[in-house]
Amino acid sequence: MSQSHLNPPSTRSWRDIPQPVRPRAMGREGKKRLVMAVGNIVGLVLVLGAAGWGVFEIIHLWETNPTRITAPTKGVPVRDFAVRTDGVLDKAWVQRTLELPKASSLMELDLVDLKRRLEESGQVSKAVIERKFPDVLVVTLQERTPVSRVMARIGDAVPVAFMVARDGMVYSGFGYDPVMTEALPFIDGVKLVREGSGFVRIEGMDAVADLLGTAQAAVPAIYHSFKIVSLARFGLDRTLVVKSTEVEVITFGSSQDSFYRQLARLDYILGETRRQNATGQLKSVNLAIGDKQVPVSFDTTPDSSAGSRSSTAAVIRPGQTSGTALFSLPPRNSSPTKRDF
């Protein structure tokens, strides 16, 4: 058998035929689209880069020298104040206190310094100042409320009354109703110390505020009789001594019993004393000691027959010669008809 019969020739395909083909040249429209696409990409990258750089520069300038950003509003002076407060201060007071230079723009103002000026008055406990472009300064105030008054002399001037807040801050006070301020008791037994343009805060005013607030809410008549609250003994035994139109000296304890219960006892003692009308006017009542019996004294020696005329609910037991007595209180909840106030 021949070799040609053993190895037949391989079958040829059309793929074996040489087919020289030149690639189609890009047309004019294709080239134009390609150039536009590349241009768009490059333009977008440039815009994003410029925007990022601009943001960086603005932030850096604001942190280092913000006054350089005032060019757009340099010629726009502050036109108005928007004042919000929880107290009595008004726009006129804010304008006088801040004393802004004429034709000053918002960006030229030092907000930290303006905040300090407002809070230095003492009446403002917290001030928040904001810019509202192009020409409005927004001022939000949180004010202190006076709970008492104190007389003070500055230099050779005539003594004047200052307001005292719960936190002990002493300040002149502006915009309050005279009827309200005239009803505030005076603080005694303290020494005012100058601190800058104001005074060092008075210690113990939180206890005074609690006593006066409880009295005003529970027994307004007794509250309005309070004229002076002394803190002279507060540092020693935490007692408050009150002078009123009905009792010369009333001693309250701030650490042993609640003011509400002490005021209830005082109200009861005053009521029983008026009803009996036999032992003279009360001179002192010590509510800081005693629960069932309260030491009291009178401007005259109590009549020994007063005990026989007193009710079983309250017995005044006189001293021998000094005009002092122990006022016996009724048992708590002894009768559903008896009241605290």
Secondary structure layout:
Elements lengths: L2 H4 L21 H37 L15 E6 L5 H8 L12 H10 L3 E9 L3 E8 L2 E7 L7 E6 L4 E2 L6 H5 L3 E3 L5 E2 L2 E2 L5 H14 L1 H6 E5 L3 H4 L1 E6 L4 E5 L5 H18 L5 E5 L6 E6 L7 H4 L5 E4 L5 E5 L13
Parallel strand pairs: 1-3, 7-10, 12-13
Antiparallel strand pairs: 2-3, 4-5, 5-6, 8-9, 10-11, 11-12, 13-14, 14-16, 15-16
Structure description:
By secondary structure, the protein is of the alpha+beta class. Among the domains are: 75-143, membrane protein fhac (Ubiquitin-like (UB roll), Roll); 179-328, Rossmann fold (3-Layer(aba) Sandwich). It contains 10 helices and 16 strands. It has an 8-stranded mixed β-sheet with strand order 7-10-11-12-13-14-16-15. A 3-stranded mixed β-sheet has the order 1-3-2, covered by helices on one side. Strand 5 (160-165) and strand 6 form a beta hairpin. It is elongated. The N and C termini lie far apart (140 Å).
Short summary:
The protein is of the alpha+beta class. The protein is built from 10 helices and 16 strands.
Distance between the termini: 140 Å
The tally of helices reads: 10
Q: Can you give the mean pLDDT?
A: 83
CATH topology type of the domain at 179-328: Rossmann fold
Helical content class: 25-40%
GO cellular component, one term: membrane
Protein name: FtsQ-type POTRA domain-containing protein
Domain POTRA: 76-144
Region (Disordered): 1-26, 298-341
